[in-house]
Amino acid sequence: MSTIGFEELINKYTTVLFDCDGVLWRGNELIPGSKEFIDHLRKHNKRLIFVTNNASQSREQYRTKFQKFGLDVSTDEIYGSAYAATVYLKYKLKSKKAFVIGMSGLEHELDTEGIEHIGGTSEEYNKLTTDIDFKGIKDSIDPSVDTVLCGMDLMLNYSKLSHAFSYLENKNVNFVLTNDDSTFPQSAGIFPGSGSLSAPLILASGRTPTVVGKPNKEMLDCILDKNHLNNEETLMIGDRLNTDIKFGQEGGLDTLLVLSGVSKREDIEKENIYPKYILNSLDDLN
Ligand SMILES: C[C@H](OP(=O)(O)O)C(=O)O
Ligand SMILES: [Mg+2]
């Protein structure tokens, strides 16, 4: 494990895969040096691909987020777990309708692929109430729902979990997570991630979901569907050992861990995941 300098990086790699939360930004706060580094790579005609497990936004919404930071990124350079999960439902599961625990970004991606969805941000599932109509939940089961899809949901509540659980009682209904990150970084610190939000369903249903996001191959498959990667010339940069660095290693890519997000230096030995390179942040490359 070593550091790496900008010159060495641009001479060695033609393509850079970037994780987003904890590498480029924390919530809505850009991490110092990330914009400058991306601008430098653009000037050296490098291919950039952005790979985020954060399913709260669609590719289009991420393009707008990049623009707000003064970064010109096209949607086909962005691979979010909302998009990857939608592709998985559409082309692998041939899903027609999903019960969603998630936000508008995930719903937007499902809409682009013509997959119907209930739950999510719709009013009837987002009322915070202790007056639960338990019989109504069982009676409301829609037989055309073929998948329960869980992603980041800031409006998670008992009623939504009970609806999702009721669908999962039918073993023919697929169970898919956009990602299972236990936490995720905001500028104010670390908070519960999608993996921690879907844990109650896994415990209650006794079912094991398919997880699409990093480090799983479904995310890499989604990228490789549209991009040929020359492994020797591709670098994966991430802040989380058990998703980003593991994703890069299992994809045969060199990896760079930045300490600006979730994982800390002492986690490397604890998790026995050793990146090829380590830096404090992307600013070390400017
Ligand atoms: C969910 C979020 O996604 P990332 O952009 O880091 O993959 C995170 O876990 O930090
Ligand atoms: Mg991250």
Automatic annotation (TrEMBL):
<feature type="binding site">
    <location>
        <position position="214"/>
    </location>
    <ligand>
        <name>substrate</name>
    </ligand>
</feature>
<keyword id="KW-0378">Hydrolase</keyword>
<feature type="binding site">
    <location>
        <position position="19"/>
    </location>
    <ligand>
        <name>Mg(2+)</name>
    </ligand>
</feature>
<dbReference type="InterPro" id="IPR006349">
    <property type="entry name" value="PGP_euk"/>
</dbReference>
<keyword id="KW-0460">Magnesium</keyword>
<dbReference type="GO" id="GO:0046872">
    <property type="term" value="F:metal ion binding"/>
</dbReference>
<feature type="binding site">
    <location>
        <position position="239"/>
    </location>
    <ligand>
        <name>Mg(2+)</name>
    </ligand>
</feature>
<dbReference type="InterPro" id="IPR023214">
    <property type="entry name" value="HAD_sf"/>
</dbReference>
<dbReference type="GO" id="GO:0008967">
    <property type="term" value="F:phosphoglycolate phosphatase activity"/>
</dbReference>
<feature type="active site" description="Proton donor">
    <location>
        <position position="21"/>
    </location>
</feature>
<dbReference type="Pfam" id="PF13242">
    <property type="entry name" value="Hydrolase_like"/>
</dbReference>
<protein>
    <recommendedName>
        <fullName>4-nitrophenylphosphatase</fullName>
        <ecNumber>3.1.3.41</ecNumber>
    </recommendedName>
</protein>
<dbReference type="Pfam" id="PF13344">
    <property type="entry name" value="Hydrolase_6"/>
</dbReference>
<feature type="active site" description="Nucleophile">
    <location>
        <position position="19"/>
    </location>
</feature>
<keyword id="KW-0479">Metal-binding</keyword>
<dbReference type="InterPro" id="IPR006357">
    <property type="entry name" value="HAD-SF_hydro_IIA"/>
</dbReference>
<feature type="binding site">
    <location>
        <position position="21"/>
    </location>
    <ligand>
        <name>Mg(2+)</name>
    </ligand>
</feature>
<dbReference type="GO" id="GO:0004035">
    <property type="term" value="F:alkaline phosphatase activity"/>
</dbReference>
<dbReference type="GO" id="GO:0005737">
    <property type="term" value="C:cytoplasm"/>
</dbReference>
<dbReference type="InterPro" id="IPR036412">
    <property type="entry name" value="HAD-like_sf"/>
</dbReference>
